[in-house]
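Researcher: Sequence recovery benchmark, item below. Answer with residues only.
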């Protein structure tokens, strides 16, 4: 399950979650402030993992549980 402090950078228009550079894993931040520091303006927004579309929640939970 997600922690209440788990956040991602989400591009709502393209339905994408930010990944690590050259990586396959998605970046899950441990706080909203940490995510805001990496947010790149208008194409991304800081979103709590529990507020993502269900398919993204499943993908991220699979990554956490590996």
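Model:
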């Amino acid at each position: 399950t997600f922690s209440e402090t788990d956040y991602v950078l989400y591009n709502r228009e393209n339905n994408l979650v930010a990944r690590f550079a050259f990586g396959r894993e998605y970046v899950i931040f441990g706080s909203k402030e940490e995510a805001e520091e990496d947010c790149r303006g208008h194409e991304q927004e800081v979103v709590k993992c529990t507020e993502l579309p269900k398919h993204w929640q499943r993908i991220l939970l699979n990554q956490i549980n590996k």
